[in-house]
Every structure is written in structure tokens, then in C-alpha cells.
Amino acid sequence: MYRIVVMLIAGVLASGCSSFKKEKEDEAESAEQLYEIAKQQMSKKNWQTALDTLRKLEAKYSYGVYAEQAQLDTIYIYYRSKQSDLAIVAADRFIKLHPTHQAVDYAYYLKGLASFSENKSLFGTLTGRDDLSDRDATTIRNAMVAFKELYALFPDSQYALDARIRAGNLLETLARNEIAVANYYYTRKAYVAVVNRAKGIIENYSTTLAVEQALALLMFSYENMGLDDLAGDARRVLALNFPDSGYLNQTTETVKFFNKYSPKSDQPKKQKKGWFSSLFN
Predict the structure, then answer these.
(1) How far is residue 260's CA from residue 268's CA, in Å, rounded to a whole number?
(2) What is the Cα–Cα distance from 71 to 94, expressed in whole angstroms?
(3) Whole-angstrom distance, CA of residue 32 vs CA of residue 69
């Protein structure tokens, strides 16, 4: 019994000493040391472990360059670990807390990327045919707004050019989204709804390739409604802006609309090869 008691006491003391030693070690970790640990964890893609370390850094050292860098890296970790919602929240938090930070443009960029990645389908990514036009437009708009804010507020940013290109592509995506809805209405012979959608596309997405099909939808919808004068006006505008349009040679009986834009060229631009395409080529 005496031995057992002694062993129990020794165990408790050893445990206490170990805990005390661990606390001392934790207290001895500077912000720089913690950040170096987090960097090593990030380099190994141990996202959750790195996130825990960054949270510990920010909790112990709430202010300073390492705390700010920890907040930026938190956005990146959420983005890389495909936690898009959390990445967007973390980016908004950083932008609000540090609107004049030298790297706030990076926060805008990551916010845009996180919003954009929410819309990518696995199949589309693998095949290179990822078309977002039939998806929820809300997050697409959010991504576009983030990219626009980036190149508008920080025109000299290293991310500005890429953000501008991405915003332009997303604008095309939103236009295709509207085209897809208009096409659906056309197949249901809801011509008034088609006209309203087509006018909205022409007005709000005038710089996109979707305008050609919007004009065609407008023209054929007016023809189906017996509004020949308005159909003629739409045809003249279509011919003036798109003289080679395949829609000019079609009729209400033969026309087939595509989600991509024109029957002559179903794709507005060459598609990027997907993972499968690259593998088999």
C-alpha cells in the first residue's frame, strides 16, 4: 500500500511538472516562433494544424505584423482547404480591420477566388467544360464585385490584371446565365418574358458576346407575337452589329438556340483543357 501511494504521488508530481514545463514552453514561444511553426505546417499542407497555430498566435499576440499576417494566412488556408464561406468571412474581417494594409489587395483577391471556387463543378474541372451559366448567380456576382473592387482600388496591384480578366469572364458567365433563362422561356413560348430578359441582357451586358443571341431572341419572339415592325428593328440591329450571325439566315420554324451564343460558333472562345483532356493528350 505504501508503495502504491508513493507511486501515485510521484505520478501526480511528474504530471504536474510536465504540465508546468509545457506551459513554460508555450509562454516562451514568441510571435515570430509561432509564425515560423505555422509556416512549416502550411508548407506541408497541414491546414488544420497550421490554422490552430495561427489562432494561438493571434490569441496571444492580438496586435502587430505577425497577428496581421496570421489573419491573411487564415484566409489562404480556408481557401486552400475548400472552406470558401469561411475564407470569404475571414477576408471581409481583414478588409474591415485593415483597410489601408499594404496587403489588403491580397485579401480582396482571395475573397474573389473563394467566391469563384464555390461555383466550380468537379466534372467541369476535370473535363475542361466547367460552365457556370446554369448555377446560382449570387456567388458569381460576389466574386465579380471583389475582383472589380480590387482593380479599381488598387490598379497597380500585382493581382489587378488577373482580377480584371476574371471579372470579365464572370460578366460573360452572368450573361450566359440570363441567356439560359431566356432560352427556357422561349421553349415554353413565353415570348413576353423572353423579350424582357433579352432587353435586360442588351442593356446590362452590352460588352459581352451574349448580345448577339439576345438580339436573335428578341427578333424571333417579336415575330412569334406578330409584331413585325419590332422584329424588323431587332433584325436590323443584329445585322448591323453581327453581320455574319447565323441567326440571320434562320426562321422561327428552324431556329435553335444554344446556351453558348451562336449556332455558327457554339463556343465564344477556345476552351481550356481539363485534367482528363491533358491526361489523354
Answers:
(1) 7
(2) 7
(3) 11
Q: Which residue has the cell 489573419?
A: 71
> Given its phi and psi angles, is residue 258 left (phi above 0), alpha (psi -120 to 50 degrees) or beta?
beta
Classified as helix, coil or strand, 17 is helix
Q: For 132, which DSSP code?
A: G
CA distances from residue 153 to 143, 163, 164, 194 in whole angstroms, order as listed: 15, 12, 12, 37
Q: What is the CA radius of gyration of the chain?
A: 28
Q: Grid coordinates representing 58?
A: 493571434
Cα separation, 279 vs 258, in Å, equals: 29
Q: How many C-beta neighbours within 10 Å does residue 195 have? A: 20
Higher pLDDT, 87 or 266: 87
Q: What is the DSSP letter of 250?
A: -
What pLDDT, in 10s, does the model give residues 108-140?
A: 999 999 987 654 543 343 333 445 544 567 888
User: Distance (Å, rounded) from C-alpha 109 to C-alpha 96?
Assistant: 15
Q: How far apart are CA 101 and CA 81, in angstroms?
A: 25
The pLDDT assigned to 211 comes to: 94
pTM: 0.69
Mean pLDDT along residues 16-31: 55
